[in-house]
Amino acid sequence: MGLSDLPDASGVRHPRTFESLGWVTRRAAEHIIMTHPEVFWVTLAVPNHKIVKPATLHNLVRTAGMTDKAYRKTFDSL
Question: pLDDT, tens digit, for every residue of 44-63?
C-alpha cells in the first residue's frame, strides 16, 4: 500500500477519522490540532484544506502510530 492508496479528502473529513480512533480536536483554525488522551507527547496538526496532500496524510498517520492500510480501513468504514 503506497501513498496513492491513501484517501483524498478534506481537512474536515480526516479529523473525523482520527476522532473515531480516540483523538480529540483541541483547536480548529488553519490547522486542526488533535491530541490523544492516552498519548500525551503526540500532537497531530491536520491542515484545514480542501485536499490534504498524500505525503502529509502519510506523516500524520505514522505520527498517530498507524499503518496506511489500517487508516484507510477506518476511513472507508465511516
Answer: 999 999 999 999 999 999 99
